[in-house]
Amino acid sequence: MRSEYILKLLEKNERLDGRKLDEFRKITIEKNPIKRAEGSARVKIGKTDMIVGIKMEFGEPYPDTPNSGVLMTDAEFIPLAHPEFQTGKPGEDPTEAARVIDRGIRESETIDVEKLCIEKGKKVWTVYVDVYPLNHDGNLIDAGSLGAIVALKCTKIPSVDKDGNVDRENLKGSLPIVHTPITITIGKVMDKMIVDPIFEEEEVLDCRLCVATTEEGKVVSMQKIGVGVLTDDDVDEMIDIAIEKGKELRKLVEDGKKTVKQKTKTNKSRKS
Amino acid sequence: MMKTDEKMIVNGKRLDGRKPDEMREIKMEVGVIPNADGSAKVSFGKTTAIAAVYGPRKLFPRHKQKSDTGIIQYNYDMATFSVDERKRPGPGRRETEISKVSRLALEPVLFLKDFPKTTVDVFIEIIEADGSTRVTAINAASLALADAGVPMRDLIVGLSGGMVNGVPIIDLCGKEDNYCDADVPIAFLPNKNEITLLQMDGRLTPEETKSIVRNVLHAGKEVYKKQVEALKKKYSE
């Protein structure tokens, strides 16, 4: 069986595609592929392909934060991306993914929301972050989070015309982004910890922990995903991995250009 | 996290007079819903959750049945009057997520493979909410499952930790939940110290995060004792 084979490899600290346990697949980042969006990003991690679009709309502030813009994150796992994805209202998995991606941005206070007030207590900008996997080969949350921060960083705010309508022809400057949160999902199976699991690896994991960290080295969000248990020592180790790998991915975001990670040659020839 | 100028800790005391590592008054009662196979009501201060367990029972629609195992379904719901501003009835995105992580928090303690084609249904109603509702609900679910006689590896304890004004705390109330530096709801198997639910929101150093997890596991032993007492109370009567 395929899953038994994956486990056997992991026991030897090896993986199907020849990566090390703590190694990501090749990541490519494309900025602003969607011209109609206020900001967008396409992130590929191996065969996982994710597109994130940002739209800015007028909204009402929450009563307890009358001067602050609003962040809304949604994810749709559309059926074109995977045979198991179904049409219809977002179910549990996309809802959870959207909320985990959202919290990485929200809790790190990445968007300076007070700069998004148009009319105190009445009208603010709502920033809609919409996440669509185009091809699902595992690790959707890391890819979605990465896409979200890249897209937010290249988002332009529309202007408000003299009649008070959104004017997307005349953009007014960049969305105020003050942090670079990165979410890293660490999978646990047996006593092994791996990052960036492909879909088949996700199937054999006991569970995963998503950890979002900032450039200041702070932990801003965690979420255990899946059945299975973690010890306190596991959590310690996963946090440490998230900080380290977070630094690596953050470099890709901050470099800004399309970045290709060096490939490792080991075990390249293995077939299963 | 929302911001406030109000101090959450004054002279080492929290808003409700508690010490940082002190839990609210905990009440647990087993067997509160006669129709259910098992049920329980659990309060941490002004947060109250009722759990009812039905099953293992035959799962319908039939196409959802699994021939090699039973499944668990978990439905977390908040009453409209449980919060200050009336909550819209029915599940939103928050409820969907909580139901998912809670179901997965309970699944490792059950022997579902022994009950193919069935479901264990856990229904949660939060009737009063003052923070830490999802972990309060987990405690109620743990007791309700035990009350239903569903075979379990261990009981399951839910407890939140967090930090306010730079001080690590246990069992967040609603206001602390809103204005804390971080909150960390956890569910775990008390006899094996295995974590089955872990979430965190806020802003902490890695060291702070790790120590809060350990604080919760430690303080949770007390919650476990209360669960055992509550079960004994019902079955000794």
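The domain at 2-255 of chain A is CATH 3.30.230.70 (Ribosomal Protein S5; domain 2).
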